[in-house]
Amino acid sequence: MTITKPLRTWGEFKKAVAKFSEEFYHCKEKYENCIRWEGGDGAFEAIPNALDCKVFHMAGEPYTGTLVNRRPDLAVEFQNEVKKFGFPEDMCAYMRTHWGSILADKFVTANGNEYDGYPLPDFYWQTHACCSHARWFDVASKLIQSKKGANVPVYVVDVNVGPINPRQKRINPEKVDYIFNQLVNGIKWLEDTTGYQISDKKLIGNINNEIESTRLWAEIMMYQQNIPAPLDEKMIFPLFTLAVQARTDRICVDLYRKLLKEIKQRVEEGIPADPNEKFRIISDAQPPWMNLDLYKEIRKYGALFIGSLYTFSIIGAWEFVNGKMVPRRRPEEAWGVDLDSWESALKVLTEWHLKTISMGPATCMFNPPSTRADTLSAIADQWNADAIIVHLNRGCEGLSLGLVETTRLLKKRGYNVFEYEGNCADPLDFDYDGTLNRLFSYLETRGLTPIIERGRSIVR
What we know:
Elements: H1 10-30, E1 34-39, E2 54-59, H2 60-70, H3 72-85, H4 93-104, E3 106-108, E4 114-116, E5 123-128, H5 133-148, E6 154-158, H6 173-194, H7 200-222, H8 233-246, H9 250-269, E7 279-283, H10 293-297, E8 303-308, H11 309-313, E9 318-321, E10 324-327, H12 331-334, H13 342-358, H14 369-382, E11 387-393, H15 397-400, H16 403-412, E12 417-422, H17 432-445, E13 452-453, E14 456-457
Parallel strand pairs: 1-2, 1-5, 5-6, 7-8, 7-11, 11-12
Antiparallel strand pairs: 3-4, 9-10, 13-14
């Protein structure tokens, strides 16, 4: 019988992700001249990370998603803090968890370590794509002001340039220029605000790292087409978190190269994520981070989450060639441009980032439901999925926008679709037992039964 093996690089990824959050908290104690900043996972992090000093940053979504996963007890405490303050429960759950962390004056690292005293950032640097992105850090600044009496300045880049279909080759130059000009103004703002200068060398290096990290991730996910898959999505989450947090850091490029080599070897040697795989599932967006056991429990039936629109493309650089998703070529090859000056590199980053992070395939807010259905269909077909599972996520207005209509289109096209309601980051707003029972019933309607091995059902 084919058996699986643990990933050799697993410990390196866990160590790297934990290191970023620990350094973010402790940096001011260790270094006299350093910058600590926060923003969203879609922020153009290459720019502030190019300041000519030591720079440490934390992205709000991976911070809160990891927090909810590692310390759901504190996530509940933070949600209650936000409720007491008067914020409604139908707002972004990531945002509310972050605000609750500030209000409770506590910080949680990726290892689950709890620290008293929320670390003061020197500034907030954010993009505005979803309805609450800009307000997230505007309100965070006001909460810091009221709690600690500190002024944390905020700079927001508006990336609302309308629909960007994943299949289009290039983005309208007027859209690129609209954002590029804001980034140029942002460089001056950063230099005036911090007293440090942007290093051209660091900026170009950061941009190259982002391009390479996002390309490598797409190459890694291509191997998920193999039957059986070398990874399941529960394994994928900690691996992709590194690029969500630190795609401009060289360690991200180096680790993804090591991971790509290992995944290729697993496929060549026939090492599966689960030797009992017989029903392949893709999903659409964020999981309920506090209950990832959902992804483990379905393996009792030989079912496996092999990936999602979210994990494949929120930090993966793709392009469509002859109707197939393939890793995007480097801009020098695909677009005929060089990254030999900060201006040309920043212009390339603007378009690359829009097509990958800000307005990439996973970010559906400004595309009609048919576009998202097209991309999910392409993944289901190309990655040999037997079903699509859709999370009607009350914790994210943006990625849930148009999702019911998308689901209806997928069903009309003949795809097997299972929907469940939940929340990506509020443990108080997810019925785990009820959802799991419904999911088991769904799998049984597809002809699956619990796998029995040595007289008992498998639980991994």
